[in-house]
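Students often ask why inverse folding is considered easier than folding. One informal answer: many sequences map to the same fold, so there is more than one right answer. In these notes we will look at a single instance of the problem. The structure comes first.
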């Protein structure tokens, strides 16, 4: 086996693909770092959380307006059905992007289109608040990218003429 003095360097073993995307997995013997707050932070940062939250809130707002008392809303009739359906679909898209972040681009585009459709079909998209939150949430979902954890740098080989102790 060649020694480091001969100019040969050791290469660290290749990391599995899962570790490069999600960071190194803790070994079973290692204690779990951090409490619930640290786990929550890691979970939240590993998916488009804020875009999904805005989509859920926008869907709830669009869905709740037709269900308001008659004093708040004028007579709806059959026009309240698309509002409720659009709101439910937006809520489902926001939750699905939390569960399956790999579908973020599809969920983001569909959320934006539904929010724009709610502007016409649902009381100005929940008095514009639901439409604006839905468009911003869909854009945030579409734009989110997972961050690969930085790989540790390979140690530099010793300069020539020095002995490695």
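Output (designed amino acids):
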């Amino acid at each position: 086996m060649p020694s480091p003095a001969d100019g040969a360097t050791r290469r660290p073993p290749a990391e599995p693909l899962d570790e490069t995307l999600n960071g190194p997995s803790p070994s079973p013997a290692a204690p779990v770092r951090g409490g619930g707050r640290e786990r929550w932070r890691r979970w939240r940062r590993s998916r488009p959380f804020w875009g999904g939250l805005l989509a859920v809130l926008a869907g709830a707002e669009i869905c709740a307006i037709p269900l308001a008392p008659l004093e708040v809303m004028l007579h709806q009739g059959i026009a309240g059905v698309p509002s409720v359906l659009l709101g439910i679909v937006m809520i489902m898209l926001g939750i699905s992007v939390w569960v399956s972040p790999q579908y973020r681009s599809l969920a983001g585009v569909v959320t934006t289109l539904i929010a724009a459709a709610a502007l016409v079909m649902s009381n100005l998209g929940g008095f514009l608040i639901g439409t604006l939150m839905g468009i911003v949430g869909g854009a945030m979902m579409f734009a989110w990218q997972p961050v690969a954890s930085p790989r540790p740098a390979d140690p530099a080989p010793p300069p020539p003429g020095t002995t490695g102790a």
